[in-house]
Amino acid sequence: MHASDLSRRTVLAGTAVTAASVALPSLQGRSTAAENTAAPLPYTWRNAVIGGTGFVTGVVFHPAVQGLAYARTDMGGAYRWDDAAARWIPLLDWASQADQNLLGVESVAIDPAHPDRVYLALGTYTQSWAGNGTFLRSDDRGATWTRTDLTVKLGSNEDGRGTGERLLVDPRDSDTLWLGTRHDGLLKSTDRGATWARATGFPPAPSATGQGVTLLVAAGRDLYAGWGDGDGTAAAVTLYRTSDGATWNAVPGQPAGAAAKIPMRAAYDARAMELYVTYANAPGPNGQSDGSVHKLAVTTGTWTDVSPVTPGGADGFGYGGAAVDPQHTGTVVVTTNNRWSSGDTLFRTTDGGRTWTSLKDTAAIDVSEYPYLKWGKDAPTFGWWIQMVAVDPFDSQHLVYGTGATLYGTRDLKNWAPQIRGLEETAVLFLISPPDGQAHLLSGSRDIGTLYHDQLTASPSGGLATNPVFTTATGLSQAPAKPSYVVRTGEGDQGNGAYSNDGGQTWQPFAAQPSFAKEATGPIAANADGGVLLWSFTQGHPTQRSTDNGATWTEVASFPAAARPVADPVDPRLLYAYDTGAGTLFASTDAGATFTAHATGLPSGDTTTKLAAAPGRSGDLWLSAGTQGLYRSTDGGRTFAKLAGCEASYTLGFGAAPDGSGYPSVYQVATVDGVTGVHRSDDTGQTWRRVNDDQHQWGWIGECVTGDPRVPGVVYLATNGRGIQVGQPA
Q1: Is 74 a catalytic residue?
Q2: Which one is catalytic: 139, 159, 191, 447?
Q3: What are 252-270's pLDDT values in tens digits?
Q4: Theoretical Cys-Cys bridge with 586: which of 285, 364, 479, 595, CB 3.0 to 4.6 Å?
Q5: Per CATH, is 426-555 categorized as 3.40.50.300?
Q6: Exposure string (b/e) for 662-691, b if CB count within 10 Å is 16 or more?
Q7: Which of 74, 93, 99, 568 is flagged as catalytic?
Q8: What is the mean pLDDT of residues 473-478?
């Protein structure tokens, strides 16, 4: 591979990220309808607070600047810690839909000699359909970036995402950077990432299936690189070293035979001149059942097994995170991972690994700021998927560790709480903004089920919706004419559907469900008055209908397979469904008992096509058909007309009508006049104005959008990894 193969360099125009946090707009008062012009509408944006909810895979403290740290996530971008505000500042919200692969952060690196420099290696997936990786460098702590597009793929949301860091500034030359890849060996740049080439002298052959380089770490002026395959077995040699940056050799005496595992993380104790390496028998975060911790005395070459506990039998797990305390010789923290028998923990030693203490055993965990972390139980756990830990170089008792849902921190090694303010990684699937009641918002998401947002400035006080608890929501619906009645479906072990009579504050599980509901649960809809439920399923299972809150179910054979049911907002007898395969709108006039085809010949082939019904109007349907545009029907789906001016429409919702208007504002994620973003129309789709900007794009946002039916101009946007965004006219 030649240097030119990896060197397409572009400068990002207008990608500055403001370091100051944005105040949450008030949801009081009413906005005035703006004139319909081509100019964008000025909006302010910020997250509805949930708090984390995703896998924090790395935190790097700067060794020379107190309070400066960076966090990476598997699919929700990178963040810089604002010590004065005690919150994380997102650094990649400018990533457009076309650049959605950039929200996955494979690795982050700082330059110890230049505090304002930070580097990111980005790329969420390595599959053929995913884009190639991207390298970013910044000279102002992530406010602006210079970009180099790579010709290799990175996989921040794949197995092995908890290893690393894979990106390293050479301690001998700040202009030289190293990047470990999953399938293309080790890359090197001598111009701060403007160009990259395959590192010469690095022995392992690239693997089509393996994890490739798992870590890079500096120990004095020497560099170490970890290498491991993804099939659960380590290569013959798993750790390499270079002293000159040109020749790499296997580190002598490294764990071999039965002890050979994949090196996960490494941390160097400069005072003791000892390198600590954690190992596991699979890249993780799942599938690990064995591991160890080894220490290398770099001056003598002596290896020592310093594993706190030897995994085995029912207590199988791997080791993951590793961090040293630079202020105290021999003080090291390592993490366990995938330890389901007794739960994952952090082990800490102050004597170079001769003895260890489990920090979980004395931990008091306070999640009062983020109640969802109780997961529907009485108390939170210490967490799972613990593959990283970091020690503040200026405060020996300030530790943070990442889990599959949050980042915990302590200042005294005993009391722990989420250190997650500002970091929002939720992948949101459903949004409802009720027309009345306490909550302005209900949401359904991957990994955390359903939430009732009693306020937007704090994590929902009730935590996850319980009775039952879902991991991932698959459906969320409110009866249009009876907003106190809400139903939800999802993936759960104690049932897969529930209904609420108080707007989603409390829930009752369906008394019964089809036998296949657990394996194939899908979207659900309540008709206008809540008297009928339609529950659609995946894997070819037939749609089911209930007229008694889920106590009994009957098959609806005429409902199109895997379609999402949509209720008419006014007439309880009318329900709709769109067959994306055939391009046909189906309708029911008998409260969902039977469905017949209405309009045919509509856009087909795009399974993300979404049907929406305008509130307060019977038979007023809108169809977001992806790159095939936007369509509308005013006769219950018998005919549709394509709306001009939208090259693409990915999702659509409605909000309160502007003052003086009799029709709700329409919001869509769409491409209008060549610009993809969030657009609003106050004249039934005749004209559109963009309401986000190039600094607020958040990658893929085509899942769900809805306006607030009580406050004109306020819009809620679902993102795939940056939580719920709240927009309001500035």
Answers
A1: yes
A2: 447
A3: 999 876 567 899 999 999 9
A4: 595
A5: no
A6: ebbbbbbbbbbeeebbbbbbbebbebbbbb
A7: 74
A8: 98
